[in-house]
Structures are given as structure tokens and as C-alpha cells.
Amino acid sequence: MVPMLSLTNKRVILGITGGIAAYKCAELTRLLAKAGAEVRVAMTKSAVEFITPLTMQALSGNRVHLDLLDTEAEAAMGHIELARWADLVMIAPATADFIARIVHGHADNILSTLVLATSAPIAIAPAMNQAMWADDGTQANLQALKERQFYIFGPGEGDQACGDVGLGRMLEPVELINLCAGLFKAGFLAGKKFIITGGPTQEALDPIRFISNRSSGKMAYALAEEAVGFGAQVILISGPVNIVTPDRVRRIDVVTASEMLDATLANIDNADVFISVAAVADYRPREIAPQKIKKKDKELQLTLVRNPDVISEVAKLEHRPLVVGFAAETTDILENGRKKLKQKNLDLLFANNVSESVDSETIAVTAISKDQEQELPESNKNVVARKMLQLVAAQLDTAS
């Protein structure tokens, strides 16, 4: 089987028109998702005669768009918003009739309207009888679309449903996916799965009080944003912070250290990189008071017990990803960073002076690995995040 190229983080609208090749769209949708794309499906009324919307909904994981004036769809994602959402619109199969309609700017259904409204690239996968394909009218329409910067994928040649043999078959799903992927510049982390933890954790004392720290989560969110920009699939496991989730990042909210560990282990399978940026509480109260602790004596004694060490648990997994840690220190920064790298069996660690970077927009770090150390000068956290990810990518190349 031909290997598929990555479409990680890409948003693809699959437009299905009424041709017999529509049956291939089930496999096409499955493979699009496997290649990393998020898929939304729009179907013409004639398309539903060949494949059911329920099938496409099950495979894409999203509600299928069928009607231009569907009030339910408008409330959720109307055709203009859907057009803006897309990185690519792919029409497969594209019948001769639908090709003619979009050449002349028709907007009488959800799919033809999307074609007019989107600024995303549009690709069509023609599928029709060989005589219809060869017709001068069809060829003139295709030429018009090429001049408007549409991408024409196919058709292929072979046996057709009508019994004819020749050009007109829709290309196979794997071929279409690779052609789609070829429209995008692949980032150096394309296809890699990242798990990133960020922010503080909170450990309850009673129903309204907790132990926590001053971590803002900004560094983890910057790393997540930049990793997605470089093509990675990112799951961000976040303690309580007041930051907007970066686009195309899957965020899992947790509160305690135990919850962060559980979420990490539940998602670590097939991860290529684990980056522990979160300021995980080292201790938690042995007991949580069921009611608010009342002020009585001049002193209050709390018994604390050790929390699980999230990064150590990941580092000792049999099939572990590349494990990257942070050492947020206030004294002996490099020495403590080197110790942490060795003690926790990490592949890479970034050490910084936390008193200078907490809740700041800038950071300076020293990258420490088993073989070398490299200073990353103070800069905006997103800028430093890019440099960090380049070092992570270098570690991945070395490991492979």
C-alpha cells in the first residue's frame, strides 16, 4: 500500500456530489482522519442517494452539512463560518454537472455556496463516464477552473460502473490524500504526537482552600502553540490557568497532581514527545477537611504527603516517548538542572531562574542533555519555544 503523507492539524471540508464513486468517500474520510486531518462533510441532495449522511457522520465525528438553510446547522456552524474554517475544500467525487455549476457560480446548495465563500484552496476529484470526461464542454469547464487556481486531482483510467473503460474514474483515497498533503508545506514536526503538561496544580485543604503555586502556564501554552505551527499533534494537559487554548490544540483540564498523572498516562500511547512544563505540587494534604477549617488556635498544623511525580512515571515506561523536563530553580540553576536530568532519566531538560520568569512574557533557559548544554538567551516565550522545539526535533532525529 502507498504510504500516506501527513495532514496533521489540517481542516478539510469533504464535499460529496451525486456519483457512484461516492462510496469511496467512506474510506477517504477514514484515511483523512488517520492522516491527522479534522474532517467536516458537506453533501448535495443527490449524494445522499449513494452514501448515507449517518455513515459520514460516524467516520468524520462531525455533523454532516446537507442544507443551505438548515437552522440547526446555522446555529452551530453556518456556511460562511464553515467556509472560513477550512484549510482545504476537496470535492470528491466531482460530477460533470457539479463542475459545470461551479464554473458558472451557482450557489443553490450548501456545497456550491461553500465553493464561492471560501478563500481556502479547492481541489476537485472528477468522476464520470469516459465520454462525458472527453466532451468539449467538460474540458472547457475544467480549463476555466484551472485558470481560477482550482486543483484537479485525476481522473484515473480503468473499468467504469457503466461498463466502459477509459479516463473518468475517481482516484483512490490514498492517492487523493497524498495529493492534498502535497498542497501544504510540512513542518519539521509533522505527524509527531506531543503531550505537554502546563500550569499549576491545586491540592485541596478543605472545600474552599487549596495549596498551589504561581505558575502562569504561559510557557506550556507557547510550546503547544508553536508545536502545532510546526505540524505536531498536541495534547495540552493543563492545570487551572486563565489562558485561551491555542488553535488546533486539544486541551484536557485537570486540577490535582493525581489527575494530571492519570490524564498523561491515558493519552501517552503512541506519543513521540512528552514535555513536562507544569509546576506540579510536590505534596498534598494527607486529609481534606469535609467542611471549611475554622480559625481557632494561633497555629495550624498540616500533614502533607508526597504527590506522584508525573515526569518520573513517564520516564520509566517500557515504551516511553522522548521525555523533556523543566527545572524551575531559584539557586544553583545549572547544577540542580543537571541533577534532575540524571535522577529522573530525562532526554532533555530546560533550566531557568523561576524568580525571573514566573508570570513574565519572557524567559531565558539553558538546555541540558547528556552530551551538551546550550544557552537560549532571554526573549519572548514563543520565540524561545521555537528554539526549544528545534532542540527537541534534533533529539528525535538522534533517537531514531
Core attributes:
five-stranded parallel sheet, eight-stranded mixed sheet, 400 residues, 2 domains, elongated, Rossmann fold
What would you call the shape?
Answer: elongated
- In the sheet with the most strands, the strands line up as 12-11-8-13-16-17-18-19
By CATH's scheme, which homologous superfamily of the largest domain applies?
CoaB-like
What's the architecture of the largest domain in CATH terms? 3-Layer(aba) Sandwich
Using only C-alpha atoms, the radius of gyration works out to 26 Å
Q: Would you state the CATH class of the largest domain?
A: Alpha Beta
Helix amount, in percent? 25-40%
- The name of the CATH topology of the largest domain is Rossmann fold
Please report which band the strand proportion falls in: under 5%, 5-15%, 15-25%, 25-35%, 35-45% or over 45%. Answer: 15-25%
Describe this structure in words.
The chain has 400 residues and is α/β, with parallel strands linked by helices. The protein folds into two domains: 11-181, 3-Layer(aba) Sandwich (Rossmann fold), CATH 3.40.50.1950; 193-292 and 300-399, CoaB-like (Rossmann fold), CATH 3.40.50. The longest helix is centred in the C-terminal third of the chain and has 19 residues, at 381-399. The chain has helices at 24-34, 53-60, 71-77, 79-85, 96-103, 110-117, 130-134, 136-147, 173-181, 218-229, 257-267, 310-315, 333-343, 354-357, 381-399; strands at 11-16, 38-43, 88-94, 122-126, 151-152, 156-159, 165-169, 193-198, 203-204, 210-211, 233-238, 250-253, 273-276, 283-285, 304-306, 322-329, 348-353, 362-368, 373-380. It has an eight-stranded mixed sheet, with helices on both faces. Strands 2-1-3-4-5 form a five-stranded parallel sheet, sandwiched between helices. 42% of the residues are buried. The two termini are 23 Å apart. 34% of the residues lie in helices and 24% in strands. The model has no long low-confidence stretch (mean pLDDT 90). It has 15 helices and 19 strands. Helix 1 (24-34) runs parallel beside helix 2, helix 1 crosses helix 9 (173-181) and helix 10 (218-229) packs across helix 15.
